[in-house]
Write a structure and sequence with these properties.
- It is a single chain.
- The protein has 494 residues and is α+β, with helices and mostly antiparallel strands.
- It folds into 4 domains: 5-162, Beta Polymerase, domain 2, CATH 3.30.460.10; 164-257, cca-adding enzyme, domain 2 (Orthogonal Bundle); 264-435, no CATH class; 447-491, no CATH class.
- Helices cover 50% and strands 8% of the residues.
- The strands form 3 sheets. Strands 3-4-5-2-1-6-7 form a 7-stranded mixed β-sheet.
- The longest helix has 15 residues, at 332-346.
- Bound molecules: cytidine-5'-triphosphate (CTP).
- Cytidine-5'-triphosphate binds at residues 40-41, 53-54, 56, 107, 109, 111, 134-135, 139-140, 178, 180-181, 184.
Length: 494
């Protein structure tokens, strides 16, 4: 299929940049009759004008061993994928490693579905047959690097225009080849803002249970590393829609039953007129995008913060009790941190490269998400505030972000929305940041110095002294090392 000028130009730019034109020219010259294509996600992304991550190249009419020999003189060839007829190739002077393969009938994408199957590859296989076993029409196009033509036997271009995710041929067959594709359909729909075509969607709902299938060896067919990568890619792009669609197709029940319990878990109307725990959580996630959020925080929340918002009330269903006629969720912050950690560990949510979340941070945020609710921020000790605000990098800001969206999603039945505690904490955080040249400011004296001045042996007393010195410093009553020494000698001499 001949393409319009813009698309041809866009491909040329990418191919030049990645030295693929050069390579194609050399292969064509050395191995007459060979054909070189860009295939898969890169074709989709060039047409959509999205940034490209990986480039997959497909070469026809060349044996893999000959290709390997040939490529060795132009760069570094990695043989890892040779078994599956894929070579990893870094052209000399190139920036990006390319996956180069010959046409295949069966696929191993490393996603668990095809581990046991021997891959059938054949240099003479028509390109259409390779494309036929790929997941979705928008991922099943090939760009002929030499003729500048698009090979699009399954209507990928049309589906890109219609904004549709549709399997190539039978949804049942494509999913059965690799059940991680059930979550890929959702992920592409969310990332691209596309709809999943009706038959494909019905098949997702029907087959979602297979996401937990075990192989004969007892291992999961679709490993949690792949599941969490798919979930996080979608969740990062649009948290609310991802949670909703995981519910709709049954993936949430199969993968995160703890979350399903939040649906229908009623809360006292007096404080939560917005609805049950799930409704509250979705509202909190939505508020990460709100004007109010942007007013207080310049940068968007990181993925760990979004995940903490998603899980902050996870223990409400299990801690719900009636006490003296009132519904309470006593200890749901501490319990929630534990349940969240178990879920995140089980799902290997810290594993996906570049996306993996910080489980310790999420645990800490959930554990303390009520801290400014239990105490008025301006009545808290400065040393205590410092621990929350300036602990490990960025945690203080993330905790304030969670506190804000939680408050924004808590709608009292009669009274107005109450942001007073958040505003107070936010102001203190800013003041404490501004008052210090360094965040957190360095203590004027360290433990050794304190021991020397007070002639103390190592022990808990030293810690107590350091803590009171810190309190004085953070409140601005001690402004220099000299004053700190004076304070020790005069006030604390034992
Ligand atoms: N593919 C497939 N089934 C899978 C995984 C991949 O059919 N389970 C095919 C698709 O043609 C896909 C290509 O292999 O386009 C490359 O896969 P991958 O790199 O995982 O996805 P991309 O489409 O490149 O998208 P992204 O990089 O955003 O994940």
């Amino acid at each position: 299929m001949k393409m319009n000028k813009k698309i041809v130009n866009d491909f040329s730019k990418v191919l030049k940049q990645e030295l693929i034109f050069d390579l194609a020219g050399k292969v064509a010259k050395k191995i007459p009759g060979s054909e070189i294509y860009v295939v898969g996600g890169a074709v989709r992304d060039v047409i959509l004008g999205r940034p490209i991550k990986d480039i997959d190249i497909l070469v026809r009419k060349v044996k893999i061993v000959d290709l390997e020999k040939f490529l060795k003189s132009y760069g570094k060839v990695d043989l890892v994928g040779k078994r599956f007829s894929v070579l990893k190739f870094l052209p000399r002077g190139g920036r990006q490693q390319l996956d180069i393969s010959i046409p295949r009938l069966d696929f191993s994408f490393g996603t668990g579905g095809y581990k046991d199957v021997k891959v059938k590859s054949d240099p003479d296989l028509p390109i259409e047959e390779d494309l036929a076993r790929r997941d979705f029409t928008i991922n099943a196009m090939a760009w002929n690097v030499v003729t500048n033509e698009l090979v699009d036997p399954y209507g990928g271009l049309k589906d890109l225009k219609l904004k549709i995710i549709r399997t190539v041929g039978s949804p049942k067959e494509r999913f059965a080849e690799d059940y991680s594709r059930l979550l890929r359909a959702i992920r592409f729909a969310i990332q691209l803002g596309f709809k999943i075509e009706e038959k494909t969607w019905s098949a997702v709902k029907k087959h979602i249970g297979h996401i937990n299938d075990l192989a004969e060896s007892g291992e999961r067919k679709v490993p949690f590393e792949i599941i969490s990568s798919e979930f996080l890619k979608a969740f990062n792009a649009n948290p609310v829609e991802t949670v909703k669609i995981y519910f709709e197709c049954g993936a949430m029940a199969k993968l995160m039953p703890e979350i399903v319990k939040m649906k229908g878990c009623a809360q006292p109307k007096k404080y939560h007129s917005e609805g049950d725990v799930l409704t509250h959580t979705l509202l909190a996630l939505q508020n990460l995008e709100s004007k109010t959020f942007k007013k207080y925080f310049a940068a968007p929340p990181d993925l760990s913060t979004k995940t903490a918002v998603f899980l902050h009330d996870i223990a409400k269903p299990t801690t719900k009790r009636k006490m003296e006629g009132r519904v309470v969720f006593y200890n749901h912050d501490k319990e929630g941190a534990k349940i969240a950690r178990r879920l995140l560990d089980r799902m290997k949510m810290s594993a996906p490269p570049e996306l993996g979340v910080d489980i310790d941070k999420i645990f800490w945020m959930i554990e303390h998400h009520l801290v400014f609710f239990y105490s008025q921020p301006n009545e808290m000790k400065k040393t205590t505030l410092e621990k929350y605000f300036f602990g490990p990098a960025g945690r203080g800001e993330s905790l304030l972000q969670l506190f804000l969206v939680d408050a924004l999603a808590t709608k009292p039945e009669k009274e107005k929305l109450d942001l007073s505690r958040f505003k107070m904490a936010y102001q203190l955080w800013n003041e404490m940041k501004e008052n210090k040249k360094e965040v957190p400011p360095k203590p004027f004296l360290n433990g050794d110095e304190v021991m020397k001045i007070l002639k103390l042996a190592p022990g808990p007393k030293v810690g107590e002294v350091l803590e009171s010195l810190r309190e004085e410093q953070l409140n601005g009553r001690i402004k220099s090392k000299k004053e700190a020494e004076f304070f020790l000698k005069k006030t604390l001499t034992l």
